[in-house]
Specification:
Layout lengths: L7 H9 L2 H8 L6 H11 L18 E3 L2 E3 L3 E3 L12 H11 L5 E2 L7 H4 L8 E5 L4 H13 L5 E4 L9 H6 L6 H11 L1 H6 L11 H6 L5 H11 L10 H6 L4 E6 L2 H10 L3 E4 L13 H12 L4 E4 L6 H9 L4 E4 L1 H33 L16
Parallel strand pairs: 3-10, 4-5, 5-6, 6-7, 7-8, 8-9, 9-10
Antiparallel strand pairs: 1-2
Bound molecules: ligand FNR.
The site of ligand FNR has 25 residues, from α2 and α16.
InterPro entries: Aldolase_TIM, Alpha-hydoxy_acid_DH_FMN, FMN-dep_DH, FMN_HAD, FMN_hydac_DH_AS, LldD
Family: Belongs to the FMN-dependent alpha-hydroxy acid dehydrogenase family.
Cofactor: FMN
């Protein structure tokens, strides 16, 4: 199919993936209200058009933690990315590096840290979850450090998993459904060809090493439920802060009070996020949560945001509301599923193009120019 806008990749991914995997990516928690609002609320932020300001060349580059980004975009950590395309994490990381933006490897990646980090010529970011097993966390941090990771994304909005009813309907979750579905997918010729598996035994790669002997997706989901730690608090994180020399970003902040706590804790950054509407349905969209958070902590740490960002105009809106950069979740995953590394590169080019137009028509020639003045008061 013809890809002319970032949004086209969703349909292309839907056509390519087995339906339970598409819905696993596409779906959210409970009635999916927050999932929908995430997208709609960015769209409702009206940009203020300004003309004849002599903008000329638009410069999309920005600096985050001493790293230069060719546009203010980071690929978000997405679990099981290696299921959506062959060696998916490597392909996405290469696309990000080719387009000059960071890639974040999820704790629950298929490709291990040691495979992805050397495949690219810029430092990769690494995401860690709060797990009961501190030894596991320490091991993951040590491996990330050894692989040259500087920036740590610490995800705090999944102390318990939100209910994803779409997964139950699609057969992704439920008693033994995961294994059954996975086996079906493995034997589905189109998908096996797509991910390059060709009937080889199912391998969850890096995830299997956490699971020990377990190898199925049912074990994976069970492992998440059993190992995530709902009792964690800021003081429990101190050892990570002490251990990690590089920038530490807390992902999953939705309230100004928590953002202030992140500043007191000594975080270098936060991600204003509701996990793409996959955790607590009914919470604020990121577009709605961001302004108050920016008011509380802007300038005290780096503010990233994600959830519902689908195009370059949304990036400009997020920056105007106070973010320093955005993370892309589903947007890049759809592109990866649709067309691998090339798909993600195309997506990033489309984002850059859209941002250039939006910046020109709002009178901003560089990223630092974008701010609350670019929002139209209704
Ligand atoms: C995620 N997300 C996520 N976050 C994280 O910190 N670790 C992870 O392993 C995952 N896994 C994951 C899988 C899938 C399929 C999705 C869609 C999302 C959340 C992700 O980092 C990001 O916060 C959201 O995807 C942002 O919302 P949008 O851009 O997808 O709407």
């Amino acid at each position: 199919m013809i890809i002319s806008s970032p949004g086209d990749f969703r349909e292309a991914a839907r056509r390519k993936l087995p339906s339970f995997l598409f819905h696993y990516i596409d779906g959210g928690a409970y009635a999916e209200q927050t999932l929908r609002r995430n997208v709609e609320d960015w769209g409702d932020v009206a940009l203020r058009q300004r003309v004849l300001g002599g903008v000329g060349e638009v410069d999309l580059t920005t600096k985050l933690f001493d790293e230069t980004l060719s546009l203010p975009v980071v690929l978000a950590p997405v679990g099981l990315t290696g299921m959506y395309a062959r060696r998916g994490e490597v392909q996405a990381a290469k696309a990000a590096a080719a387009r000059g933006v960071p890639f974040t490897l999820s704790t629950v990646s298929v490709c291990p840290i040691e495979e992805v980090a050397p495949a690219i010529d810029r430092p990769m970011w690494f995401q860690l979850y709060v797990l009961r097993d501190r030894g596991f966390m320490k091991d993951a941090l040590e491996r990330a450090k050894a692989a040259g990771v500087k920036t740590l994304v610490f995800t705090v909005d999944m102390p318990v998993p939100g209910a994803r009813y779409r997964d139950a309907h699609s057969g992704m979750s439920g008693p033994n459904a995961e294994v059954r579905r996975m086996v079906q997918a493995m034997t589905h010729p189109a998908w096996a060809w797509h991910v390059g598996l060709r009937g080889t035994p199912h391998d969850l790669g890096n995830v299997s090493r956490y699971l020990g002997k377990a190898t199925g997706l049912a074990d994976y989901i069970g492992w998440l439920g059993a190992n995530f730690d709902p009792s964690i608090s800021w003081k429990d994180l101190q050892w990570i802060r002490d251990f990690w020399d590089g920038p530490m970003i807390i992902k999953g902040i939705l309230d100004p009070e928590d953002a202030k706590d992140a500043v007191s804790f000594g975080a270098d950054g936060i991600v204003v996020s509701n996990h793409g509407g996959r955790q607590l349905d009914g919470v604020l969209s990121s577009a709605r949560a961001l302004p108050a958070i920016a008011e509380a902590v802007k300038g005290k740490l780096t503010i990233l945001t994600d959830s519902g960002v689908r195009n370059g105009l949304d990036v400009v809106r997020a920056l105007a509301l106070g973010a320093d950069a955005v993370m892309l979740g589903r947007a890049f995953v759809y592109a990866l599923a649709a067309d691998g590394q090339r798909g993600v590169e195309t997506l990033l080019e489309l984002f850059a193009k859209e941002m250039r137009v939006a910046m020109t028509l709002t009178g901003s020639s560089k990223i630092a120019d974008i701010g609350p003045g670019n929002i139209a008061r209704l």
